[in-house]
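Wed. Picked up where I left off yesterday with DUF2147 domain-containing protein. The coffee machine is broken again, so keeping this brief.
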Amino acid sequence: MKRKLLLACTGFVLFAGPALAEEPIVGSWKRPNGTIIQYTSCGSDTYCGTVMTGEYKGKSIGSMSGKDGAYKGKVNKLDEGKTYNGKASVKGSTLSLSGCVMGGLICKSESLTRQ
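Structure written out below (tokens, as returned):
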């Protein structure tokens, strides 16, 4: 009986594990200037970024929607007080984040490292 229960639990974990896994964007990321940003789930396929250290600690840097390492949304440039259309992609331990204005004519990007 115990063996059957153990096998059933193991099967559930193996099949449910990928469905329960967090998106690659979820976690803490270090900007080139040393500031730590944390992305957490804040809705279905939506991830909110919060500054965890530095001058803007506790402030939102926007939200991204997407899955499988590719995201689109809004990026707040806190030192300018502006919000830009943004996109992000995660590959390994690198988060590439960019924001654009004027229909994508002017863009800024940076790479963050997973903490």
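Quick read: The two ends are 43 Å apart (CA to CA).
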